[in-house]
């Protein structure tokens, strides 16, 4: 019998909050059961396993992030859109570090196709239309942006930039300027 008040959605949200507190890698069904003061078995009628829980958290994070990015992009184009997109990702990672880590979880092809990850790709391509990139350059640019944003965010959150001047805000601004210049002058093959 399912415990009153426990649902897959509630457990997913609680798991996401736990991920932000202790790190995504430490989220398990057992850890969540301890948080609710129940036995692990009480949760298995709602989630299949710790991997299922992590996948649900990843899907939630992708959805939240897509909503945030879409709101930031509304009515913007060119460099303004690029900056809004980048800031939305970075701000989400700072505010929800465990969920951001969850959004990087490798999903099955079916899970990925049904996730908000598709929206992320479409929004990135929408930004790139403002730079007149066509295929295959658009795909190369999508990968470049993802790599730069995720790399910078990961290094910054790990403290890699905290030991020297200039500050990370100045560097972030310069990175975005450089990306804009590169996209405007994308090299010919």
UniProtKB/TrEMBL annotation:
Keyword set includes Transcription: yes
HTH tetR-type domain location: 5-65
Signal sequence bounds: none
InterPro entries tied to this protein: Homeodomain-like_sf, HTH-type_TetR-like_transc_reg, HTH_TetR, MT1864/Rv1816-like_C, Tet_transcr_reg_TetR-rel_C_sf
Keyword annotations of the record: DNA-binding, Transcription, Transcription regulation
Pfam family, one: TetR_N
PROSITE patterns, sorted: HTH_TETR_2
DNA-binding region: 28-47
Protein name: TetR/AcrR family transcriptional regulator
């Amino acid at each position: 019998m399912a415990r009153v008040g426990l649902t897959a959605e509630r457990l997913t949200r609680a798991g996401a909050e736990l991920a932000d507190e202790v790190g995504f890698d430490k989220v398990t069904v057992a850890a969540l059961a301890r948080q609710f003061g129940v036995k692990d078995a009480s949760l298995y009628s709602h989630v299949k396993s710790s991997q299922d829980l992590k996948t649900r958290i990843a899907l939630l994070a992708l959805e939240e992030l897509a909503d945030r990015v879409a709101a930031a992009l509304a009515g913007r184009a060119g460099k303004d859109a690029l900056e809004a997109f980048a800031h939305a990702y970075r701000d989400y990672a700072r505010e929800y570090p465990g969920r951001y880590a969850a959004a990087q979880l490798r999903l099955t092809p079916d899970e990925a196709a049904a996730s908000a990850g598709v929206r992320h790709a479409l929004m990135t391509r929408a930004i790139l239309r403002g730079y007149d990139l066509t295929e295959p350059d658009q795909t190369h640019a999508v990968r470049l942006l993802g790599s730069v944003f995720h790399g910078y965010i990961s290094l910054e959150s790990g403290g890699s930039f905290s030991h020297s001047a200039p500050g990370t805000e100045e560097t972030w601004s310069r990175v975005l300027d450089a990306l804009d210049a590169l996209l405007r002058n994308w090299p010919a093959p």
